[in-house]
Structures are given as structure tokens and as C-alpha cells.
## 1
Amino acid sequence: MKTGRALGLLAVVLAVLLGIYLPVLIGGYEPQLGLDLQGGVSVTLQALGEASGEQMAKAADIVRNRVNALGLAEPVVAPQGNNRILVQIPGIQDTERVLSIIGSTAQLQFREVLEVIYPGDEAYESTEVTVPDPEDVEAYQALKDQEIVLLFRKADTEEKPKVRMGPTRLTGDIIASADAAVDEQKGGYKIDFTLTDEATPQFASLTQELLQKQLAIVLDYNLESFPTVQSVIENGKGEITGSFTREEARDLALVLKMGALPVEFEPDPLVENISATLGRDSLRQGLWAGLLGLVLVVLYMAFMYRGLGGVTTVALAIFALLVYGIVCLLGRFLDWKLTLAGIAGVVVSIGISADSSVVYFERLKEEVRDGKTLRSSVDRAYKSAFRTIIAADAATFITAFILWILAMGAVKGFAFALGLATLLDVFISYFFTHPAVSLLSRLKVYNRPRFVGVGREIAGGEG
């Protein structure tokens, strides 16, 4: 390899390091830590009554989507048995808001308004308000097909009107998307929704039937609004008003967009706070394990390859800098959180990175044993070694990618860290290790066999 090309490849490594660390240092970014390293909250959702495995799996997917949509990365969301879902979320601050979102069934119902009973009406005192009891699963589920009476709690008056409604005509399954928007007429916020293609004619038929009548919008048996249908809605779009705050509208739009949970859960889930102190101990142990592995690899490479071991030491230092910088940027811009499993993936990859150097250096030693100089062997040995390095790293990356696709929670973090480290290994091997050895081979001392781990002197130059 020519000197200019070698220096150019090393310059690429320097440019990449600068490109990563300039924003990290200027912005003061640090790695975002996962639940097991910084602490957080663990929530166990208990289903009411019996639920099928398919229902629990779907509920877990919906909860996971809701948590991810809040920007809470690397949550652990997994069914446990036939009636529970475990949710672990790192570093959350607004616990109550998160609990309300992940546990809300978001059962949206559209019902015909049969009667609005205002305070002062004769029937007001004698009309009983329906009180749903989620504990009585059979009765609770039967309410969907029954007449009910609910208070309109969002009324401005001190005493709230009572609204009698018929059975459910349509449910939230008809909604394809929902977004929070400013309510310019009433102030506050509202939710604009779009119906699925299949539901659009159904909703048009319903609004045709209830023209100039009132249609109640009920969410988890809370009456949100009961507007008068002024015209047939044929475009598949509607809105839910109710003087929502910005956060309430965003949260409601979120749960409607992600879909209703297919099962009911107990209103008071089991909540456990995970200690940050335990997380710090785990982080300390993980870092010590990584440092010990790094030292052992450096000592091994120095013992086996003498002067070439110094190249591996610098390569591992560059590897560590790249991993740390990328983790900082991922945490800042993608909210990716480093877990103990992720640290394990990085520690394992130290050995992978060293393996690439071993493959290359062994090829070099074979060339030197055949009587060739180190300088004349650098490119030939690397060409052969690089094919092996690519094949080995490709196998590791494919394994990590499949694991990342199929796994959940902490295992996903391990797979991501391993895959990232594998890509960095190829980068460092091509842009640093090869050109660095090429430049060092021009030094007389590096052409002494014992200095590169070969135990006898060359007798007469190249063979």
C-alpha cells in the first residue's frame, strides 16, 4: 500500500471521530441508560376474567406501541401466563400519565342519545346513573348492548345533566388514525379522526339515520360529547370535542390511533419502582468486566504478536471511542437506551474485534516464516485475511440482526450493540489496522521477525 493511500485511510478514521465527537462534546451528550442501569418502574397489568393467548399477545403489542409512541425507548413489554402483561419502563418521570396510557382500554363507543335529563327536570332525581363495575366481567361486557345513563361531567354547570343512550352502534375499531388539534370554536383541544375504508359507509349510514338527532361519543364509559348530527358524514372524518387540554388530547389520540386493548385490565395495576442504586452497581460491574476483558486482550496480543500488539491496542481504543460516541448520539437523537445486555454485547464484541487482528497477523506471520519481509507481505496477507474477516463478521451481523428482529426488551439491546460493534470492526480493520501496519512495516525494527511474533531471523530476504 502506498504511503499516501495509507495516510488517506487513517484520515477517514480521524474525520469520523471528529464528526461524532464534535456534537457530543459541544452538546454535552451522555449515554441514555436503560431500566436495569438507571432504575425506573415495573408495571404488571392483570386481566379481568379469562383471556386467550392471542388476545394477550395483541394487548402486549398495543401497549408496546403506546409506550414507544411516548418516546420511552427499550421498554420491556411481554405477556406473562394467560392473564398478565409485564411492562418495564426506564427513567420515567410522569408515572401517572404513563400508567393511564398503557392501562387504558380505550373502548370507544358511538351510541344514539335517547334523552337528555337536565337538573330540575322531574325525572332527574329518579333516574339512576349507570355505574360500570369492571370486577363483574360478565355484567361489564353486557353493557355494550344495553341502554345506559351517564353523567356529562364536562358540563359547565355545578349539577351535571344525565344522558340516556341506546346500545352501542359502532366502536373504536372503525378509527384508522387520530390526531390532537386546536378547537378554534370552543377553545382548548379536540381529536380529529379518520375512519377505515370499511367503516366509512357504516358511519355514513348511522349519521343518515340520526340526522338532526344527537350521537353520543363514549370512551371507557365516560361521556365525552353528544353533538347533534347536522349532516350526513360521508368523507370518513369526524372529531371528538370535550374541552381537552393539549396533553389529554394527545394521549387520547394516541390510544385511539394504536387501537383499543382487546381485554379489560384491573384498574389498579401492580407498580414496583426499580432502584437506581442497583442500576449503578450493575453499570459499575459491567464497566469493570469490559475493562478487564480489554486488558486481557491487550496482554494476549502483546504476548503473541509483540510489536503488532500495539496496533491492536490502538484499534481497540478507537473501537471504544466510536462505540461510546455513537451510543451518546443514539441516546440523544433516537432515545436509544444502553442496558446491561447492551454492555454485554459490547464486551463480547471486544473479542470479535481482536479476532480480526488475529486473522490478519497470523497471515502476516505465515508470510514472514516463508522468508518474506513484513513490508512486502502487508497487502498480500490482508487481501487473504479480509475475506475471512468479512465472512466471519457477516455471520455475526446476520445473527445479531435476526436476534434483534425476533427478540424483545433487553435481548434486543444486546443484539443491537453486537451488530453495531460488528460493523465497527470491519470499519476499523479496513481503515485503521491495515494502513497502520502498512506504515509501520516501513520501519526497520518491524521487519525483525521476533518483533512481530516469529521466533527466528530471516535468512536472506524474500523467497
## 2
Amino acid sequence: MRSFLFLFAMTVSVYAVEIEYITIETIGSGSTRKDARMDAISEAIGQVTGRMLETTEQLSSHFQTKTDNDISQSSGVENYDKEINSATRGAVKSYTVLDEKETAYGWESKISAVVAKALPSKQSNRKKIAVMPFSSSSKLTFDRMALDALTKSLENRFGLKYNKTNPMQFMAMILTENIEAYLIQTRRFAVLDRVTSEVQMERNFVKSYSSSVEDLIKINQDSATELIVVGRLDEVSFNERVQRLPSGREIKVGEGTVAISYKIIDVGTRQVKFADTFNKIIGINEMREVLGGRTVTDPGKIMLKIAADSFGLTISEAIYPLRIVAKQGASRVILNQGGRSVKIGDVFEVFKLGEKLIDPYTKESLGREEIFAGEIQITRVNAKTSDARIISEEILIDKDYLCRKKIFSKTTTSPQIKKINKEELDDLF
């Protein structure tokens, strides 16, 4: 089979996707006229889009009902062009038979086809990542009220599909969706759907955490995935306890835990880049903050969202650490991330990049030396960026420095938290 590609192209926009129409000449062969023409059309699409196998299957279904006599008069006929356009799902706008002849080996068709090709989007340079549906254990520890609220929430979310005997399985589904949502809003990744697609349903990705790296690579090899995230929801717990305030007043204080095991696999190198456990302790006040100060009636649902955001931040910072993109005066900086990734009051440690580091044994790159420069605190959050003030400076903080979120221990407090007296503490509850 031969093809002749013409550079004549027409570009249109369909639902914000740029489509370029390319005219190409190809020659197909087959035992019958329709086989030869189908072969030529498939070759044309394959040359432009690379989807030859899928196209051949679609055209086979279409041509199955056609006879050689049907198609002998079809070239250039408007209705037939529409049929081909439909059969190829819009890949072929039209085609014309330039030459068709019977040979000693069957038939040969030379056609000129107008084939659609999607142009690279502005987001095509984003790293392609697939979050496989998380599996789950059965370790769920909730008090009665929290469990009742969780059950009602899952029933409303999944309807008849919900199985009360295994709530963790459905919580793992929600966790996966929340992680995907977080990664999408970072604007750093092209997140490939592995939750709702029909292909996923057929291949039963639910057990992906225990799958081998080779199997996971095979599952994702048709989507140009660069990174695969697989995980297991190991534990979700929530319990309330009575706490006595300094004033003598007793209140109920809730605290929960979400534990996750995860791996991040580099498809290109087939290496497990990260493999770790993630444990997030979530207090009732953190849940209230997410709800804008409202009462927490369904802690399980809120905990999954908070855990997904924290886990997503862990992934995002490991691959794309926040950077300073501009400096305003001596004490203000702008970061290249906003949205759900940062919150007003968050404190970040700032690092200047130093020399490249090489492992002495494997000779692989270990990244670059990070020289501590100081700390900044978020003062404003936008959709794509955030503003921060410099709160400490060891060396001059400047543009392009890395920022990593500071983790405070229970014995330290972040700068935005002030000490409060006994009366003010009571007022919080």
C-alpha cells in the first residue's frame, strides 16, 4: 500500500478542539472491489491519525452490507460520503476514487481522501497521568452516628449499586474521583479517565493495586500514559471523645484517620518511582473549615475529600514543586499555583536550586541540591496563582525558587495561629 500526503489543509474548531483536514492519496488492494477500497480508506486514516486497526474494524462493519455493485457508483456521491463519515466517526470527511482496476491478484483502488486530524492542544505538554481505581481493605471504624451518616451518603451516591457489606469499596471509588479532581485543578497534568470509561469496566481495574507493573503498562499503553497512580484505601476511622476545657466545660471532639498505600509507576521506564504509605489525621475543626464553618454531619465524606487533596498535593509536589514566578518589591512573591492546592495562611519553605546531584553507584540523577532560603506565607489564592509574603529570609528569595509546604508538628504552631485565652477557647465551641 502506498500513500501520497498533500500539505493542503483546512483548520476548523469543533467544541474547542482544533481539527485539521488533510488530503491524502492512498492505494489499497483486496480480493474484491470493496475490500480494496476499504483498504485504501483505512490506509489513509492510518497515515494521518495512526488508528488504522480501529478504523479497519469500523469499515468492515459498514462494508459488510455493501456489494461491489453498490460501491461501484458510490464515489463522490454525497449520501455515501456521509455514510463513510459516520462509519469512520468523522475521521474521513469525503473521498474520491482516482483509479480502480482488477488485477491478477484481485482489485486495486487509488483514492484521494480528506481526513480529519486533531491538532495538539495547549495542554498537550502536560504530563499524562492515570489514576487507577483504588482498591480497599475492610478496616472501617466509625461510631454509630458517623456510620449512619456515611451509609446514607453512600446510598444517595450509588443507589441500588451500593453494597452495605463492603462500604470501603465505595469509599475507595469516591477517593479516586476526588484525587482525579484535585490533579485536574492543579493544571499540571492531563488526567486520563480510568474510572468511568467502558474500557475500564471491561478490564476490571479495581484490583489494579495488586497487579504487576507489566500488566499495568499493558492496560495503559494505548493512551500515551506517562505516569500511573495505583493505590489501596487501607483504613478509614472516625470517633468522637469528650474533652474537658480549661473552664471545666465538656465538649465532644471528633478525630479521624485515612490511611492509603500507593505506588506511582513511570510507564516509559517501567519503574516504580514512588511507593509509600500516606496517613492523614483529620480533626473536626479541619472538617469545619472545609465546610465554611458549618456543622459536620457526614465526617466520612469530608475526610475523603481532605485526604484526596492532601494526597494529591503529595503527588503534585513530588513531580511539580511550586515555584516563585514573580517578586513584587522586597517582601511579596507570586507562586505558579492556586485553586485547591494552597490556602490562605499556608506556610511554605523556599529553596534555591544548587548543583546537580548524581548517585555515585548508579550514576543516575538525584535531582539538584536544594539550599534553604527562607519561608513565605500565602495571603491570597487565585484560580491559577497565589500571592505570598516573605516571613523569614536566610538568603535573598527570588524568582524561580522552589516552594515546599511546611509541616508543623503538634508542638509547634504556624504563624497565622495566635494564642488564645480560656474564654476565647470556649467561644470556639
## 3
Amino acid sequence: MELGMGDVTSYRSRSPRHLGPQSRMRIDRLRQDRAAFELVRRVAEARSVSLRALMAGGQTRGHVGLSRRMAMYLCHTELGRTQLEVGILFGRSHGTVSYACKTIELLRDDPVFDFALAGIEAEHRRAAATEALRHAA
């Protein structure tokens, strides 16, 4: 199977889906920030959500919306991106990113949620350390 420029493979179905121009632009912008792209990809895998769904426009509730808020929070906290930079990556306002960060901070009081998020953080840190060692060698 060969994917075109505007196609992204879902983690669930592994079948290509065509992206709209705005979603394609958001994913292309995210790919330019390699660390953010890898982190968002890890969130998508861990949460069984497609990258396409995470980067889609509009309001999303439920599992996908929470996964997107987690990805925005981690880009801000783990990568040190400003809320404005995270908003640009996701095609959202900095106010939306601020709300996402506040929401995730409140949810971290739940030990089950915190454990799941800490697992993604630990995986990201391991991958970042491996990448740093690879570049140092």
C-alpha cells in the first residue's frame, strides 16, 4: 500500500484516509517539530487514537478530545513549548491550550489517570535519552 502526500495511516485500521487541507496543514506543521511529532505520535499510540483524529479541527469530546488535551499538555510540559507554540502546532488558540493544561492538571489527581500519563512521559524521556546518545556517538 502506497500513501500519498495527504494520507495518514490510522493506528487502528492501518488504512489510508484522505485529509482535508486544514488537517494536512496541521500535521505538516507538526512534522516540522520532530520532538513534538514523536510525542504526539506516542500519545496517539498509547491512547489508540489516530494521529488524524488528534490533529483534526473542531471540537472533539470524549476519548479523542481527552487524548488531544493530553498531547497538548505534554508538548507544553515535556518539551517546554509555550502555550502559544503548542496552539500553533495544533491549530488552536493559546487559551484552548491553557484550558487543556488546567484540565489535565486537575485529572492528574486521579491515580489511574496519572499512572497512564506518567507512562507516556517515561516513554518519551527514554526515547529522548536514546536519541541523545545516538547523536553523541
